[in-house]
Amino acid sequence: MTEDDAGGDTPPTLTAAGAPDGLEPPSPSGVSFDVAKTVGSSSLGWQRTQTWAASSEARFAPPPGYRVVVVDTKSCSRVRDLASLRRDLELARLFAETYLDRASSRPEGGRFPDDAQWMSALVMYGRAFGSSVRASERLTDDWLKDDERASHRFLLDMRNKFVAHAVNNFEHAVVVAYLADSAFERRNISRLGQMHAEILPVSEDRLLDLVGLCKRFVIHINRRLRAALSDVERELRALGLDEVYAMPDLAPPEIDLARVAKRRR
User: Fold this and answer.
1) In this structure, is residue 17 part of a structural domain?
2) Is residue 15 part of a domain?
3) Is position 14 within any domain?
4) Which domain holds residue 221?
5) Global pTM?
6) Lesser CB count within 10 Å: N end or C end of the chain?
7) Residue 44 lies in a domain
8) What's the distance, Cα to Cα, between the start and end of the chain in Å?
């Protein structure tokens, strides 16, 4: 199994040596952490192990013989933030790969609907590194190689200064005047107009860099997820089975469309 493979269908086991309230000793294999619940690529499409609709009718069915409860110990905020960061990068990779699959057949010049894919890839990539409510875990580039870090920062600037916000000189709008310039016509302003120019799609090499960086960061995140889940495990051991079994059953999240401008709780 590679570091970004899924952990399988068996629910994670939670065991501890000498834990209070009758928790079982650990098995030789230890605790199994299912840290990779999603997969995104142009060949596989987008799949999520559990998909919830944003409606009151959504339900979650646990595996036979299990209850699934919501855990909210001290380290859970790290797990939640890392899972959210990984989702951004998985989507960025999916959009970039989907665009690249069709890039060779794309006509040159102009704007086309599939530009939305590379733009979305940049937006989701940058989302993983911007300011947000995900304060428990942050991603940095200090562990990347020099060439990777240069590509990473270019992609962030492309996203932040061009795709998401109008800042740099990758687009230009100018006002023009057409002036009579002929020996047979007196000088005058014939008409006014405007012209707009912008960079055409980001290069395939840059998008391949993005895909590679997404893979690197997801592997990095999965390592950190395993460490955070180990801390959650220790916190649950300390609580004991009575408190763990008293935790609320998993239910679909409530999404309030009226709070579109509010920070999530």
Assistant:
1) no
2) no
3) no
4) 38-259
5) 0.75
6) C
7) yes
8) 36
Q: How many domains does the chain have?
A: 1
